[in-house]
Write a structure and sequence with these properties.
Blueprint (H helix, E strand, L loop, with lengths): L1 E3 L4 E3 L1 H19 L18 H21 L3 H23 L1 H19 L25 H11 L29
Antiparallel strand pairs: 1-2
Helix pairs in contact: 1-2, 2-3, 3-4
């Protein structure tokens, strides 16, 4: 599952895909209430009424977990999901007491650590595919274009074009005309 030297250990693509699917499937199951987990509705209870805060939180968790599973903006989705899980778990622990919720808080910290494992670098070639836009920007070379124009004879005038109106000299406002107040 790992290759590389002692200085840099990378997880191969299959291992990272399995890890992403396993972690995301847990969060999807929690969002669909198939298994018990941290209630992220606490995050939105201040701004949304009771039935809507849980539904909104479940929808966000489902969407973010699905993004992690499909490797679409994985780092952003994993970071938002980790922050939401940590904050909701912390709020539940503070609300219900440390003695009762320490185990679930610890479980959520382990899940957050697993989410951050999706940050690992698979191979140097995969770094190209993590960008939002998959296009390479190449600078324009001006010298070959000018050579091509000169070779085809499309170059403009060899001598500069004279202006049609004569230019007037600007008035001279020397240092003697300045007044100091």
């Amino acid at each position: 599952m790992q290759d590389g030297t002692a200085n840099r250990v990378r997880m191969n693509l299959a291992g990272q895909s399995v890890l992403r699917m396993l972690i995301a499937s847990y969060f999807i199951a929690v969002s669909l209430r198939i298994i018990p987990g941290t209630d992220l509705g606490l995050l939105f209870s201040a701004v949304l009424p009771a039935p809507w805060n849980a539904a909104f939180a479940a929808g966000m968790v489902f969407l973010l977990a699905f993004m992690v599973m499909l490797a679409v903006y994985t780092r952003v989705a994993a970071l938002i999901l980790a922050l939401m899980t940590f904050y909701a778990s912390y709020l539940a622990m503070v609300e219900l007491g440390v003695e009762r919720e320490l185990g679930s808080f610890w479980r959520d910290l382990a899940l957050i650590a697993a989410l951050l494992l999706t940050y690992t670098d698979t191979t140097p070639e995969r770094g190209q595919h993590r960008r939002a836009l998959h296009r390479a920007i190449a600078p324009r070379r001006v010298a070959p274009i000018l050579d091509r124009v000169a070779a085809t004879g499309l170059a403009a005038h060899a001598t500069p074009v004279k202006p049609t109106m004569p230019l007037r000299p600007l008035p001279d406002h020397g240092a003697l005309n300045c007044k100091i107040y």
